[in-house]
Amino acid sequence: MAHKKENPAQPHFDFDKVVESAEVLSGEQVAEKANVTGYDPVEKTTEYMHRTVKFEESWETTVQQARNELLQKDARQVYFDFLSDLCKQIESGSSKAERYCELLEKVAIQGFGMSREEIEIQKPLRGGTRWRVRFNEAEVERHLASHIVGKNFLNEIKIDESFSESLSIGSSDVSQHRSAVPFPSRFFKRSVPFVLNNAAGSLFRMEDGKSRYDNLFKPKPDEDMLRWMLIDPSYQDELNGEDYQRCLASAMDVGQYRFDHEFLLKSDNRPTVILRDGSLFPQDAYLDNFIILNKRGEFVREAIRELLACLNYAKLVGTIYCGVSKAVRLRVYSAVTDWYIARNIDRSWEVGNYTLNDGQAMTLLLSSPDFVGDNLSEAVATCLIKRSFTTRANLNMKAGTTDNFESYFQNYESHHQHEAHLIADYKALCGIAHLYMCFIGHAKSPQQQLPRYEFFYDESLGNPEKVVSKILTSLQCCGLTIDYDHSLMSTEPITYLLPNVAQQAHNLSKDVGRQIDQNTKQWIMARYAKSIDRK
User: Is a pLDDT exceeding 90 seen at residue 393?
Assistant: First the structure.
């Protein structure tokens, strides 16, 4: 790469994930920060509104020019220049140094999984204001080269016609039902609350030139299913508030992974592609939570075991195992797009204030009438970025490395000897769980938001770009539909453009879940009545 030498020097809005990635301050710190900086949440909200409006108003002008230019720009060079420029601004003492450090962390560390070997951010000393950063050019170049696939930042992709001949597409989704069992007592009518998770799916294929969907679900729960589906009232007694909410999230992961493994991957009519609703990675990925010896830890461990089983089986049978993620928080693509526009197209474009998330920004960047071929036979997609489970688990920062975690695990086990035997599955997942993510421009306008596609990758699948072509072929075959059901806690629905098969799985999961909810209530009441008779 040509460059100048620089000076070395974490459907539904997931509130828990936001808290997890937030800066935690004490009450005194909040008050101090408000007094010092004059923090104004109303101003921050209007800032967000202005940023969104400006991006959307520039869709046919500035953003279109960025689309055209990024089709010709080498992705690795764009990212290197972006990271290098941020480091230079930080080292020069820019007034936005803290914000630039935040962008560095979001893109390089949380996105690409870099560690202190590549980039080390140094906070100001107590009483100081100077941020510093150590930027290892050679290691950053090496990391980008091994984690980016695709010639340019944006690339044209076409369907794989040979792949469509025997194509079948599966999908799954999980729904959560908060319910209660009413029962009579001597003086009052009471009810006992419970939470029930349910997974279901759909299988699409062409039969005699016509689309056919097969609904996949288990109509009646058995005791083994309820072990992971039913969160009974005792959980709230055992767990504190945070652990309880995390347990609910992991229970959803367990249900969907189990469904993927048993009803899709091991099915007699196994799909060639799985487009599951949601991210491939579990919602609770941290090692410290994995070894907790309570109900939360049990569910985290079960989720890890089930994901590991899915990945191993997908690798064995050659199925493309792909997540369709709507609730995107990363800013790996959007931050560099903002920077590119500001440095090369519009000098008044803001960098370092508010950055849209990848889903919002890539919807505006990729959606264009010129970008969609007839019958979705071609499209434009972002470059592929490799992301590993170790990055999702923040091990790249804890271990201080990007690829060799053995010494970290040995040290961890020596300090947690009583729980050391538990982490074998966790270590195995770290060794296998790598995905490539991208956005595909399969919309003619940004009216509906695009999801992020992220597929499990193993060398046996061949060229990752060919895998994306096969995913596009799957989208062409099953078609796309508008999803109105995920508002992310907004009273105004945020609509998404999703694969038909994923929306079919989503609707089925809700419908079946309501039926299972009723069956479970009856089961609980029957067990309760029998226990009374015994007394």
Answer: yes
How many CA atoms within 13 Å lie on the side-chain side of 343? 16
- Which residues, 6 or more positions from 97, have their beta carbon under 8 angstroms from its beta carbon? 89, 90, 130, 131
201/51: higher pLDDT: 201
pLDDT in tens, 324-335: 999 899 999 999
pLDDT-derived band at 111 (thresholds 50, 70, 90) equals very high
pLDDT tier at 390, thresholds 50, 70, 90: very high
Question: Within 24-158, where are the H helices?
Answer: 27-37, 41-57, 62-70, 75-91, 97-104, 137-147
**Per-position b or e across 344-369, b if 16+ CB within 10 A of its CB:** bebeebbbbeebbbbbbbbbbbbbbe
Q: What is the DSSP secondary structure assignment for residue 123, as one 8-state letter?
A: P
- CA 394, distance to chain mean position in Å, is 14
Sign of CA dihedral 463, 271, 503, 261: negative
Spatial distance between the Cα atoms of 118 and 287, rounded to a whole number of angstroms: 23
- Give residues with Cβ within 8 angstroms of 525, minimum separation 6: 181, 183
Could you tell me if residue 456 is left (phi over 0), alpha (psi between -120 and 50 degrees) or otherwise beta? Answer: beta
Amino acid identity, residue 476? Q
